[in-house]
What we know:
Layout lengths: L1 E7 L4 E8 L4 E5 L5 H12 L2 E6 L5 H4 L2 H6 L4 E3 L4 H5 L21 E2 L3 E6 L2 E7 L8 E5 L4 E5 L2 E2 L2 E2 L9 H12 L7 E4 L5 E2 H7 L6
Parallel strand pairs: 3-4, 4-5, 5-6, 10-13
Antiparallel strand pairs: 1-2, 2-3, 7-8, 8-9, 9-10, 11-12, 13-14
Bound molecules: zinc ion (2 copies).
One zinc ion binds next to helix 2.
Amino acid sequence: MILKIKECEPIGTNAYFLADPLSGKAILIDAPLGSYQWTQGLCEEYEVALEGVLLTHGHWDHILDAHLFSKKGIPLYGHQADQLLFENPAIMSSFSLPGIELEGFTVNHWLSKQAAFSIANFVFDLYEVPGHCPGSLLFFLKAESLAFVGDAIFAGGIGRCDLPGGSFEILKQSILKEIYTLPADTILYPGHGPKTSVRIERESNPYVRL
Ligand SMILES: [Zn+2]
Ligand SMILES: [Zn+2]
């Protein structure tokens, strides 16, 4: 498996490109600014076809390029609780930056908690981890012991809970029930900042303690 990471403008949002060269298939997790062009380059480099874009949640910085994938017919996946944010991200413009254009798009497949969701030769267990955002999803790739967690948890931090639809109590429950219960060696890839692991956060995250 190939895993490539790009930290995107304007606020350091991570995009994750996963490819399986044997099957010639790839996916993208989150679609921040610049991720469309970056993904096109990677698909050419590794000679793979993009099968879909999985969105961890509907916040503007994670979806700025989603409309570009949508226009090319690439299927988009997300949680229905964030439908309004996907279709009309301008409702969050007061939390965005001046000069940033927020263009809506249609999500083609709604995801919810589910074991063994298959896409492009990857098999994910899906978890709902609301609290930072109502439609926050976690994509656990069991075979590789890694999980894409969006803005639910960061290395030594947690997602902010003061945005519309946010709640610290709900986020805390999501982290305790769905993240700290993953195998300890699971590597966590967050929406911002460096990777971490379940073990490290369970032992030292200052915001949510066991
Ligand atoms: Zn967010
Ligand atoms: Zn974010």
